[in-house]
Amino acid sequence: MCQDCRSSSDIRMDTYSLSSDFGDSTVPVSSGAESTGQTEPCTSSSVSSAAVGKNSVLVNPRQRGNPVLKFIRNVPWEYSEVIPDYVMGASTCALFLSVRYHNLHPDYVHERLKELKKAYALRVLLVQIDVPDPYPILKSLTHIGILAELTLIPTNSAEEAGRIIENYKIYENKPPDMIKEQKDPGLLQQVIDALTSIRSVNKTDAMTLLSVFGSLAHLLKADLETISICPGIGPKKAQLIYLSLREKFTLSK
To answer: How many CA atoms lie within 13 A of 65 on its CB side?
Structure first.
Protein backbone atom coordinates (compact mmCIF):
# COMPACT_ATOMS: atom_id res chain seq x y z
CA MET A 1 0.00 0.00 0.00
CA CYS A 2 1.33 3.43 -0.82
CA GLN A 3 2.76 5.66 1.88
CA ASP A 4 -0.04 8.21 1.54
CA CYS A 5 -2.79 5.63 2.09
CA ARG A 6 -4.14 5.52 5.62
CA SER A 7 -5.85 2.81 7.63
CA SER A 8 -9.49 3.04 8.62
CA SER A 9 -8.50 4.18 12.09
CA ASP A 10 -7.17 7.41 10.56
CA ILE A 11 -10.52 8.40 9.04
CA ARG A 12 -11.33 12.02 9.77
CA MET A 13 -14.50 12.21 11.82
CA ASP A 14 -14.66 15.99 12.18
CA THR A 15 -15.77 16.40 8.56
CA TYR A 16 -19.34 15.35 9.30
CA SER A 17 -20.49 17.86 11.86
CA LEU A 18 -24.15 17.95 10.91
CA SER A 19 -24.28 21.69 11.40
CA SER A 20 -21.65 22.61 8.78
CA ASP A 21 -18.56 21.65 6.75
CA PHE A 22 -20.36 20.31 3.67
CA GLY A 23 -18.52 22.65 1.32
CA ASP A 24 -17.53 22.27 -2.32
CA SER A 25 -14.71 19.90 -3.11
CA THR A 26 -13.06 18.08 -5.95
CA VAL A 27 -14.28 14.49 -6.24
CA PRO A 28 -11.96 11.72 -7.49
CA VAL A 29 -12.82 10.29 -10.90
CA SER A 30 -12.66 6.69 -9.68
CA SER A 31 -15.70 5.36 -7.85
CA GLY A 32 -14.19 2.20 -6.44
CA ALA A 33 -15.70 0.11 -9.24
CA GLU A 34 -13.30 -1.98 -11.25
CA SER A 35 -14.01 -1.83 -14.97
CA THR A 36 -14.97 -5.17 -16.50
CA GLY A 37 -14.73 -4.05 -20.11
CA GLN A 38 -18.30 -5.27 -20.68
CA THR A 39 -21.00 -3.22 -22.32
CA GLU A 40 -23.62 -1.90 -19.94
CA PRO A 41 -27.27 -2.83 -20.58
CA CYS A 42 -28.18 0.85 -21.07
CA THR A 43 -25.99 3.04 -23.21
CA SER A 44 -27.76 6.38 -23.12
CA SER A 45 -25.50 9.37 -22.70
CA SER A 46 -25.50 11.52 -19.59
CA VAL A 47 -28.60 13.68 -19.36
CA SER A 48 -30.01 16.02 -16.79
CA SER A 49 -32.10 14.36 -14.10
CA ALA A 50 -35.10 16.51 -15.04
CA ALA A 51 -35.17 14.94 -18.51
CA VAL A 52 -35.17 11.35 -17.30
CA GLY A 53 -38.33 9.28 -16.91
CA LYS A 54 -39.63 8.71 -13.42
CA ASN A 55 -39.34 4.94 -13.82
CA SER A 56 -35.56 4.88 -14.27
CA VAL A 57 -32.75 4.55 -11.78
CA LEU A 58 -30.37 7.43 -12.45
CA VAL A 59 -26.71 6.40 -12.57
CA ASN A 60 -23.74 8.71 -12.18
CA PRO A 61 -21.38 8.27 -15.18
CA ARG A 62 -18.50 7.56 -12.77
CA GLN A 63 -20.17 4.16 -12.19
CA ARG A 64 -19.53 3.13 -15.80
CA GLY A 65 -17.89 -0.30 -15.70
CA ASN A 66 -19.18 -1.19 -12.23
CA PRO A 67 -20.34 -4.85 -12.29
CA VAL A 68 -23.35 -3.79 -10.18
CA LEU A 69 -24.97 -2.38 -13.33
CA LYS A 70 -25.23 -5.86 -14.87
CA PHE A 71 -27.55 -6.87 -12.03
CA ILE A 72 -30.02 -3.97 -12.23
CA ARG A 73 -32.31 -6.00 -14.46
CA ASN A 74 -35.87 -5.47 -13.31
CA VAL A 75 -36.03 -1.69 -13.64
CA PRO A 76 -34.66 0.60 -16.37
CA TRP A 77 -31.60 2.70 -15.64
CA GLU A 78 -29.70 5.38 -17.47
CA TYR A 79 -26.75 7.68 -16.97
CA SER A 80 -27.44 11.15 -15.63
CA GLU A 81 -25.39 13.99 -14.19
CA VAL A 82 -26.47 13.36 -10.60
CA ILE A 83 -24.34 13.83 -7.49
CA PRO A 84 -24.84 10.39 -5.86
CA ASP A 85 -23.85 7.17 -7.60
CA TYR A 86 -27.48 6.04 -7.88
CA VAL A 87 -30.79 7.87 -7.53
CA MET A 88 -33.68 5.47 -6.88
CA GLY A 89 -36.38 8.07 -6.24
CA ALA A 90 -37.12 11.72 -5.60
CA SER A 91 -35.81 11.44 -2.04
CA THR A 92 -33.67 8.27 -2.19
CA CYS A 93 -30.07 7.87 -3.33
CA ALA A 94 -27.07 5.60 -2.85
CA LEU A 95 -23.30 5.86 -2.80
CA PHE A 96 -21.30 2.75 -3.68
CA LEU A 97 -18.04 1.85 -1.93
CA SER A 98 -15.96 -1.30 -1.87
CA VAL A 99 -13.96 -2.03 1.28
CA ARG A 100 -10.81 -2.71 -0.74
CA TYR A 101 -11.09 0.64 -2.50
CA HIS A 102 -11.72 2.39 0.81
CA ASN A 103 -8.52 0.88 2.21
CA LEU A 104 -6.58 2.36 -0.70
CA HIS A 105 -8.43 5.69 -0.84
CA PRO A 106 -9.75 6.51 2.65
CA ASP A 107 -10.54 10.13 1.70
CA TYR A 108 -12.90 9.12 -1.12
CA VAL A 109 -16.06 8.69 0.95
CA HIS A 110 -15.40 11.99 2.75
CA GLU A 111 -15.14 13.88 -0.54
CA ARG A 112 -18.32 12.30 -1.91
CA LEU A 113 -20.26 13.24 1.22
CA LYS A 114 -18.98 16.81 1.08
CA GLU A 115 -20.35 16.99 -2.44
CA LEU A 116 -23.67 15.37 -1.51
CA LYS A 117 -24.20 17.81 1.40
CA LYS A 118 -27.71 17.40 2.88
CA ALA A 119 -29.45 16.29 -0.33
CA TYR A 120 -31.98 13.41 -0.21
CA ALA A 121 -33.99 12.21 2.77
CA LEU A 122 -32.91 8.56 2.47
CA ARG A 123 -29.18 8.24 1.80
CA VAL A 124 -27.81 4.70 1.43
CA LEU A 125 -24.14 3.74 1.58
CA LEU A 126 -23.77 0.41 -0.22
CA VAL A 127 -20.56 -1.21 1.01
CA GLN A 128 -19.32 -4.21 -0.96
CA ILE A 129 -17.36 -6.67 1.20
CA ASP A 130 -14.30 -7.71 -0.81
CA VAL A 131 -11.60 -8.21 1.86
CA PRO A 132 -11.16 -11.09 4.37
CA ASP A 133 -11.62 -8.98 7.52
CA PRO A 134 -14.02 -6.08 6.84
CA TYR A 135 -15.22 -5.50 10.40
CA PRO A 136 -12.84 -2.69 11.48
CA ILE A 137 -13.70 -0.78 8.30
CA LEU A 138 -17.43 -1.41 8.75
CA LYS A 139 -17.20 -0.08 12.29
CA SER A 140 -15.60 3.14 11.07
CA LEU A 141 -18.07 3.49 8.19
CA THR A 142 -20.96 2.96 10.59
CA HIS A 143 -19.65 5.88 12.65
CA ILE A 144 -19.48 8.00 9.49
CA GLY A 145 -23.00 6.87 8.59
CA ILE A 146 -24.41 8.02 11.92
CA LEU A 147 -22.79 11.45 11.65
CA ALA A 148 -23.67 11.95 7.98
CA GLU A 149 -27.22 10.51 8.28
CA LEU A 150 -26.49 7.54 6.03
CA THR A 151 -28.08 4.10 6.02
CA LEU A 152 -25.17 1.65 5.70
CA ILE A 153 -25.96 -1.61 3.89
CA PRO A 154 -23.13 -4.17 3.54
CA THR A 155 -23.32 -6.44 0.48
CA ASN A 156 -21.37 -9.58 -0.35
CA SER A 157 -21.53 -9.28 -4.13
CA ALA A 158 -22.30 -6.98 -7.04
CA GLU A 159 -25.47 -9.00 -7.64
CA GLU A 160 -26.74 -8.31 -4.12
CA ALA A 161 -25.97 -4.60 -4.48
CA GLY A 162 -27.85 -4.46 -7.78
CA ARG A 163 -30.85 -6.17 -6.24
CA ILE A 164 -30.94 -3.65 -3.38
CA ILE A 165 -30.84 -0.71 -5.79
CA GLU A 166 -33.63 -2.06 -7.98
CA ASN A 167 -35.80 -2.97 -4.99
CA TYR A 168 -35.63 0.60 -3.71
CA LYS A 169 -36.88 1.72 -7.13
CA ILE A 170 -39.57 -0.94 -7.39
CA TYR A 171 -41.02 -0.07 -3.99
CA GLU A 172 -40.68 3.70 -4.44
CA ASN A 173 -44.40 4.27 -4.99
CA LYS A 174 -45.78 1.13 -3.37
CA PRO A 175 -48.41 1.74 -0.66
CA PRO A 176 -47.39 0.58 2.83
CA ASP A 177 -50.03 -2.16 2.84
CA MET A 178 -47.64 -4.86 3.99
CA ILE A 179 -46.78 -3.01 7.21
CA LYS A 180 -50.28 -1.78 8.02
CA GLU A 181 -52.27 -3.45 10.75
CA GLN A 182 -53.99 -6.52 9.36
CA LYS A 183 -57.50 -7.60 10.28
CA ASP A 184 -56.22 -11.16 10.44
CA PRO A 185 -52.47 -11.05 11.10
CA GLY A 186 -52.36 -14.84 11.28
CA LEU A 187 -53.47 -15.20 7.66
CA LEU A 188 -50.49 -13.28 6.27
CA GLN A 189 -48.09 -15.37 8.35
CA GLN A 190 -49.74 -18.57 7.12
CA VAL A 191 -49.21 -17.52 3.51
CA ILE A 192 -45.58 -16.58 4.21
CA ASP A 193 -45.03 -19.93 5.95
CA ALA A 194 -46.53 -21.74 2.96
CA LEU A 195 -44.24 -19.94 0.53
CA THR A 196 -41.10 -20.36 2.64
CA SER A 197 -41.77 -24.09 2.90
CA ILE A 198 -40.75 -24.22 -0.77
CA ARG A 199 -37.06 -25.05 -1.15
CA SER A 200 -34.81 -21.98 -1.65
CA VAL A 201 -37.62 -19.49 -0.90
CA ASN A 202 -36.88 -17.22 2.08
CA LYS A 203 -39.04 -14.67 3.87
CA THR A 204 -37.78 -11.81 1.70
CA ASP A 205 -38.78 -13.75 -1.43
CA ALA A 206 -42.22 -14.44 0.06
CA MET A 207 -42.78 -10.77 0.89
CA THR A 208 -41.62 -9.78 -2.60
CA LEU A 209 -44.06 -12.18 -4.26
CA LEU A 210 -46.97 -10.99 -2.12
CA SER A 211 -46.10 -7.36 -2.78
CA VAL A 212 -45.88 -7.88 -6.55
CA PHE A 213 -48.97 -10.07 -6.97
CA GLY A 214 -51.06 -8.73 -4.08
CA SER A 215 -52.40 -12.10 -2.94
CA LEU A 216 -51.74 -15.82 -3.04
CA ALA A 217 -54.67 -16.22 -5.43
CA HIS A 218 -53.07 -13.91 -7.98
CA LEU A 219 -49.72 -15.66 -7.54
CA LEU A 220 -51.36 -19.02 -8.27
CA LYS A 221 -52.69 -17.59 -11.55
CA ALA A 222 -49.31 -16.19 -12.61
CA ASP A 223 -47.32 -17.93 -15.33
CA LEU A 224 -43.74 -19.11 -14.93
CA GLU A 225 -42.18 -16.21 -16.85
CA THR A 226 -44.00 -13.57 -14.79
CA ILE A 227 -42.83 -15.15 -11.54
CA SER A 228 -39.23 -15.41 -12.79
CA ILE A 229 -38.85 -11.64 -13.39
CA CYS A 230 -39.74 -10.74 -9.80
CA PRO A 231 -36.75 -9.19 -7.96
CA GLY A 232 -34.49 -11.86 -6.50
CA ILE A 233 -36.43 -14.83 -7.90
CA GLY A 234 -34.95 -15.85 -11.25
CA PRO A 235 -35.79 -18.83 -13.52
CA LYS A 236 -34.70 -21.71 -11.25
CA LYS A 237 -36.43 -20.48 -8.12
CA ALA A 238 -39.49 -19.48 -10.17
CA GLN A 239 -39.83 -23.03 -11.48
CA LEU A 240 -39.72 -24.43 -7.94
CA ILE A 241 -42.37 -21.93 -6.83
CA TYR A 242 -44.57 -22.55 -9.87
CA LEU A 243 -44.55 -26.35 -9.53
CA SER A 244 -44.77 -26.40 -5.72
CA LEU A 245 -47.77 -24.06 -5.59
CA ARG A 246 -49.68 -26.22 -8.04
CA GLU A 247 -48.82 -29.36 -6.11
CA LYS A 248 -49.82 -27.82 -2.76
CA PHE A 249 -52.98 -25.97 -3.78
CA THR A 250 -54.31 -27.23 -7.13
CA LEU A 251 -54.14 -30.96 -6.38
CA SER A 252 -55.65 -30.58 -2.91
CA LYS A 253 -59.02 -29.28 -4.13
So the answer is: 10
Going by C-alpha positions, the residue among 89, 224, 94 that lies closest to residue 170 is 89
Query: What are the angstrom distances between the C-alpha of 195 and each of 135, 173, 188, 212?
Result: 34, 25, 11, 14
Dihedral class, residue 232 (left if φ above 0, else alpha if ψ from -120 to 50, else beta): left
In the chain, the amino acid numbered 110 is H
Please report the sign of the dihedral spanned by the C-alpha atoms of residue 78, residue 83, residue 87, residue 90. Answer: negative
* pTM value surpassing 0.70: no
Q: Find, among 87, 90, 60, the residue nearest to 75 by Cα.
A: 87
Q: What is the pLDDT along the chain (253 residues), one digit of tens a residue?
A: 443 444 333 333 333 333 333 233 333 333 444 433 333 444 333 334 443 447 899 999 999 999 999 999 999 999 999 999 999 999 999 999 999 999 999 999 999 999 999 999 999 999 999 999 988 999 999 999 999 999 999 999 999 999 999 999 988 877 666 555 555 557 778 888 888 888 888 888 888 888 888 888 888 888 888 888 888 888 888 888 888 888 766 544 4
* Cα–Cα dist 95/128, whole Å: 11
* Residue 120 region by backbone torsions, left for phi larger than 0, else alpha for psi between -120 and 50, else beta: left
How far apart, in whole angstroms, are the C-alpha atoms of residue 64 and residue 243? 39
